[in-house]
Specification:
The complex is a heterodimer of chains A (about 475) and B (about 375).
Chain A (H helix, E strand, L loop, with lengths): L1 E3 L3 H12 L3 E9 L6 E6 L5 H11 L7 E6 L2 E5 L2 H13 L15 E5 L5 H9 L4 E5 L3 H13 L3 E5 L2 E2 L4 E7 L13 H14 L8 H12 L5 E8 L1 H7 L7 E4 L5 H6 L3 H6 L2 E7 L4 H11 L3 E5 L9 E7 L24 H15 L8 E4 L22 H14 L17 H15 L8 H4 L3 H10 L12
Parallel strand pairs in A: 3-16, 6-7, 6-12, 7-8, 9-11, 12-13
Antiparallel strand pairs in A: 1-2, 2-3, 4-5, 10-11, 13-15, 14-15
Helix pairs in contact in A: 3-7, 6-7, 13-14, 13-16
Chain B lengths: L9 H8 L1 H6 L4 E3 L8 H11 L5 E3 L7 H20 L22 E7 L5 E7 L6 E5 L10 H7 L4 E5 L21 H14 L5 E6 L2 H11 L4 E7 L13 H15 L1 H11 L13 H4 L6 H15 L13 E6 L7 H10 L3 E6 L4 H5 L3 H17 L1
Parallel strand pairs in B: 1-2, 5-6, 5-7, 7-8, 8-9, 9-10
Antiparallel strand pairs in B: 3-4, 4-6
Classes of the chains: A alpha/beta (about 475), B alpha/beta (about 375).
Chain lengths: ~475, ~375
């Protein structure tokens, strides 16, 4: 399928790549039939721990259906879809919605993250509080898996509880929006959720800067993808979680559970109430819920303030901030001496840019590599070449060409019939890349551009590629 | 420059700013709800007074396509501003709809000009006619409004002039974009000379942004003393193997090649560009400009021809241009690769390279204090030397 280049050029290229502190080792491959080369990189475990751990997660097969997203220059996460990762990052890291009105974390804090989604808040808490211990609750298996991977990636002390949190232990029906997981919940209501999204569209426009939520909303409305899957999930209570994890205090309880927030509070035992220092929660203010939650918290001795994000002015979503007098206090024991924040090293796009610059300076005139891939071991065969279409698709030459190109853009794990171009982070420019590479190998008009919109899954597009012509007589032409 | 009179409403100014887009696509709808809804009556009054096509107001954004959503957001911001300011037509009803302002606030125009091959062009001018001239060559295919920041920033000490890409905009009173004859880089660079001739400008500093940097460079190399000095901001150069390009540049080039192939092919890409998600890669405050070349299949086809010519034209032969030159890039520009600018600065005989800590061509278009200071300092040095 491919060959390792053993030429002077690739040798020079590898030597230059190794000059970069974040690169422990590298190898260059060129696809059969020519085309841009692929560089396999082993990140330096000390200088680029984030990328090294990413490669280790993938090598162990633990990425599963998740994808890597890099919403900021210093953050890499495993997520379900890119637009949601961007949205969560902006809400939690950029807008800092949970750390307002005096809410803060002491070092070595104990944090409970109820409704953790992919763990973005968990990561934020881990960064703000060296040595923090975090219990992250997320009932959806796909998202809970992301929390676990992200905790490992960022070396955070996180225990994942794969259950919903409510008033009593048991089970509940849960609606999962695979294309819009941040709105999933036990009290999901499609009409109401649609109204929330619509309200966001027009009030979100004045904020300046690209707004990922606009993308999610507009796209979901247009494509009518706000379709839920109903599941049965286990429910636990905060009292049970505290008992299971021997928690006597919680420095910050964060609740974002899409309308189930009052039930979460009902599941707190009287003795645990006394140990909770601060609470931040998103309240859906329907049927007087904000007043009710405020009353409950004030009755428990908290000072409560609430605010509504200007962009959510037409929705019922309100953020509530509750603190006990004097909180946050340095209640925790001092964090271990090792609990400082080591430099996580570069994220992938930053490393790629630096390597391309390095190559341009050191090897001027030499063609830039087409792509970089991470591995922990150059001796291990990459998963990519085995990215053949699943058995449900015909394994023809055309489909294999399409599979290789799809894998070269989205990764081998994305070669599956239901993988959706847009949920994988595809946009109009990536569509052009896909089409250009396809035309390079299979000739013009192999796929109509708008077909990526109407038939956006790998399976449907592969079928269209197969239907569009005979197998090429020359399977690959290099430029 | 502007005739004194009642201050136009934010909605009226926003519609003027989006004039090319509203005229290019008949039958647009806009969604309006929230705190400062725009009524159909009020919008009809404003579009009527401005001589713009009617826009249909709907309450539900579901089903709107990218251009309609971009315009909806643009107008929603303006409408909210009117409600806050208590502007002249704040509130419902059309009684306060303004007369059309004498000119856009950032310049006089569009002034019709004929290119050397007869192609009609639209240009704008701001600042005193006897001041040293600066010509802005902005990104290919974009409405002149995108250059408003620079027009405002430099007009006064300078006479600032810009024009829009040939074949991408309607002539006054015309329907659809004006005919496009030639679209190669030489023709686009020749349009700069036509603009200087029409406005009676003997020589100018030429400021090229993004793809406009290639046109500016070509003009500097071929138009002799008409270009007294040159500044190139986040240029999108094809330097063959001499400098790498970003993934964004390669993807854009693929899109231009595809849409240039035929109007039919552009129609397919246009359907893809109708998807609301495309707005994600466009800054909301200027999305109504950035989406313009994608607004119709014909515009997209022309954009592919014109911008494709720029993106695939080997710029290396132009690097002999002997004028004093400023080349600006940033360390983290992921749109136009900084290595291209570095190469250009190293080869131009009299170039000075400035590497900003961050930013790309869009932040350069903003004409914020940092970039304006860089430009003013260079212009001041050039004028002193002259």
């Amino acid at each position: 399928m491919r060959q390792f280049e053993d030429t002077d050029r690739s040798g020079r290229l590898v030597a230059v790549l190794r000059e970069h502190a974040a690169v422990a080792d590298a190898a260059v491959e060129t696809p059969d039939g020519g085309g841009a080369s692929v560089v396999r990189l082993v990140p330096d475990p000390e200088r680029a721990p984030l990328l090294y751990r990413s490669a280790a997660v993938e090598a162990a097969g633990r990425l599963g259906t998740l994808s890597w997203h890099e919403p900021a220059a210093d953050l890499r996460v495993a997520g379900v879809n890119r637009s949601e990762s961007d949205f969560l990052h902006r809400e939690i890291f950029v807008d800092d919605v949970y750390f307002r009105h005096g809410v803060e974390l002491p070092p070595g804090a104990v944090v409970v993250d109820v409704g953790a989604n992919i763990g973005m808040f968990t990561l934020c808490a881990a960064r703000r509080s060296p040595g923090a211990r975090i219990i992250a609750c997320e009932p959806l298996a796909e998202l809970a898996a992301a929390v676990a991977v992200n905790a490992e990636l960022h070396a955070a002390d996180v225990s994942v509880v794969g259950k919903a949190v409510g008033a009593a232990e048991g089970e509940t029906d849960f609606t999962y929006y695979p294309h819009n997981s941040v709105m999933s919940g036990a009290f999901a209501d499609a009409d109401d959720d649609r109204r929330t999204l619509r309200g966001y569209l027009l009030t979100g426009a004045g904020t300046g800067g690209a707004d990922p939520q606009d993308r999610i909303m507009a796209d979901r409305l247009a494509a009518d993808l706000l379709a839920g899957e109903h599941r049965r999930v286990a429910v636990t209570t905060l009292a049970r979680i505290a008992a299971d994890h021997a928690l006597t205090r919680i420095d910050l309880l964060k609740i974002d559970v899409e309308k189930a927030e009052e039930d979460v509070l009902r599941g707190i035992s009287p003795e645990l109430w006394d140990g909770i220092r601060q609470i931040v929660m998103e309240v859906h203010d329907i049927e007087g819920r904000l007043a009710s939650v405020t009353k409950t918290l004030e009755h428990r001795g908290f000072t409560v303030v609430h605010e509504q994000d200007a962009r959510l002015a037409d929705t019922a979503c309100v953020n509530v901030y509750a603190r006990r007098p004097g909180a946050p206090a340095p209640t925790g024991s001092a964090p271990p001496a090792t609990a400082h924040h080591p430099d996580p090293g570069p994220v992938m796009w930053r490393l790629e840019a630096e390597l391309l610059d390095l190559l341009a300076r050191r090897l001027p005139g030499s063609p830039a590599p087409g792509r970089f891939e991470l591995t922990t071991d150059l001796g291990t065969a990459p998963a990519r070449p085995e990215a053949v279409p699943p058995a449900t698709l015909p394994r023809t030459a055309r489909v294999e060409v399409f599979s290789r190109i799809w894998a070269s853009i989205f990764g081998a794990e994305a070669v599956r019939p239901d993988a959706d171009f847009f949920d994988l982070g595809g946009d109009s420019l990536i569509a052009m890349r896909l089409l250009a590479r396809l035309e390079e190998q299979l000739g013009e008009d192999v796929l109509e551009p708008d077909m990526i919109f109407t038939e956006s899954t790998f399976g449907a597009l592969a079928a269209a590629v197969e239907a569009s012509g005979e197998p090429p007589s020359e399977p690959a032409r290099s430029r | 420059m502007d005739a004194p009179g009642p201050r136009p409403s934010g909605v009226a100014e926003a519609l003027l700013d989006a004039d090319p887009l509203v005229r290019a696509v008949p039958g647009l709808r806009i969604a309006s709800e929230g705190r400062a809804p725009l009524s159909q009556e009020r919008l009809d009054a404003v579009t009527g007074s401005l001589g713009l096509p009617r826009l249909e107001v709907v309450t539900d954004p579901a089903g709107l396509w990218s251009v309609e959503l971009a315009l909806s957001r643009h107008l929603a911001r303006a409408s909210a501003g009117d409600a806050t300011d208590g502007g002249p037509d704040a509130g419902s009803g059309g009684a306060g709809a303004p007369a059309r302002p004498a000119a856009a606030r950032w310049g006089e125009g569009p002034i019709p000009v004929r290119a050397g091959d007869g192609t009609p062009l639209r240009c704008w001018s701001a600042g005193p006619a006897d001041a040293p001239a600066v010509v802005l060559v902005t990104a290919c295919g974009m409405p002149a409004g995108l250059a408003a920041g620079w027009m405002r920033a430099l007009a006064g000490p300078f006479r600032v002039v810009t024009w829009e890409s040939r074949g991408m905009f309607a002539e006054p009173g015309g329907h659809g974009p004006a005919p496009l004859a030639a679209y190669d880089v030489a023709s686009q660079a020749g349009d700069l000379t036509a603009v200087l001739d029409a406005l009676g400008i003997a020589g100018a500093h030429v400021m090229g942004l993004c793809g406009g940097a290639v046109v500016a460079l070509a003009a500097a190399a071929t138009a002799g003393d008409r270009v007294g000095s040159l500044s190139l901001w986040h240029g999108d150069y094809d330097l063959r193997d001499a400098a790498p390009r970003t993934e964004h540049q390669r993807d854009m080039q693929a899109m231009m090649a595809m849409t240039a192939r035929s109007e039919e092919k552009a129609t397919g890409v246009h359907r893809l560009m109708r998807r609301p998600v495309v707005l994600d890669s466009m800054r909301p405050d200027i999305a109504h400009h950035l989406i313009y070349p994608y607004a119709t299949p014909l515009l997209l086809h022309r954009y592919g021809l014109l911008n494709g010519a720029i993106m695939s034209h080997d710029s290396r032969p132009y690097l002999s241009a002997a004028q004093p030159a400023l080349v600006v890039t940033s360390r983290d520009d992921t749109t136009a690769h900084p290595a291209g600018s570095q190469y250009v600065a190293a080869r131009l005989p009299r170039a000075r390279l400035v590497t900003r800590p961050s930013g790309d061509h869009l932040t350069a278009f903003d004409a914020g204090p940092e970039v304006v200071r860089i430009a003013e300092r260079f212009l001041s040095d050039v004028l002193e030397d002259a």
